[in-house]
From TrEMBL:
Full protein name: Solute carrier family 25 member 40-like isoform X3
Chief place where the protein resides: mitochondrion
GO biological process terms on file: mitochondrial transmembrane transport
The organism's place on the tree of life at top rank: Eukaryota
Entry annotated with the keyword Transferase: no
InterPro entries listed in its UniProt record: MCP_dom_sf, MCP_transmembrane, Mtm1-like
Compartment(s): Mitochondrion inner membrane
Gene behind this protein: LOC115627120
Keyword Membrane: yes
Amino acid sequence: MPETAAKAEASAAKIKPANATTTATAATNYENPSSKPMGSARSHTKSQVTMTDPRFRIRPLQQVVSACTGAMITACFMTPLDVIKTRLQAQQSLLLSNKCFLYCNGLMDHICPCGPNTPSNSFSKPAPHFTGTIDAFIKISRNEGIGSLWSGLSPTLISALPSTIIYFVAYEQFKARFIDLHYKYLTPVKGTPFGRDIPMLVPLMAGVTARICAVTLVSPIELIRTKMQSQKMTHAEMLGSVRKVVQAQGVLGLWRGLPPTILRDVPFSGIYWTCYEYLKSRFNVVEPTFGFSFIAGAISGSVAATITTPFDVIKTHEQIEFGEKFIFAGTRLNIADNPPKSVSTPTTSVAQRLAKIYRLNGMRGVFSGLGPRLFKVAPACAIMISTFEYSKSFFYHYNVNKHNQEQLASNSVVDLKTAYGTTAEDKKWK
């Protein structure tokens, strides 16, 4: 019996070091990020764990929460800027005679019908004494209260949240799938850790595909929702309006503004994510800090906005014109009737519009509004991506910690079975 006990102890001694070695190896390869500050910008050489590792990837529900958080924070920061801009432009008579103002908080477009009998009248209330942005900020806050700077927040969130959530979740999902395909079929060396040497084609394709999905899903409902709000229509009246629009131009009439939107937003998305991922790769950042994401997001958004400005000009013109016809048509819901003077035909192509703008105003017209657009897009992209990345980092740490706890629990069970289990030698002795 003493000999058997000695053999059992020797057997346990042989097994325990192996388990300890395995645990140590796992700890080395997949270090617990809770010991590091959240959002620390770790390089590829410092950690084998990446956010693209299938074991620790952010779950779809976690991506939804991250995107929703980013969209709300971005809208809260950007809405006052657009309220002030709208008030400044509302001093002119342009917005007081059944015209539309294209309201954009950096996440998506929102058409504001401005006129004496529209709900947007208070939002676009003229103030002839505003002399500039700072003056408008001070006088609006003093005379109407600080809360009036967020007067357009509710409709913006209603529009922006679904589109932003669809877009960012779709991007993360497509990116993960493309990364899997890359490592499965294109990686020359097997065993290369996830998240390293990802080609720029991955974020480009993921960004383009995600934006196409988001724009296609949201485009048909935006102007219909705007008409419902502006005319206080019931759901039955709204359905009747949709039916007449379909009768006038067919089902595809609901997507009439889609081509210029795709020409602007899809290249913007592809360029933006490619630039952002390039900056992360250039500085060897696996898990970006809040500051890095903020700066990289602003730079990437500025580059993408500059390149796609001509398409933004076209898209803005068409959406405003379509909104004016669609919203202020009264009882005449056939949007093919009485087009504005600036629109030659409902079928004017994007190329024809761009050529007309170039003939009238040259390159200055093609890139008109670049400064104000950069002023909006750069901070909006910076706030959105930094908030989104920080939320992802939180869930990533949660997933890694949960995985480590499960691994420790599993190793403890194995150790207990090894130490106290009945060996074959004991059974033979009995």
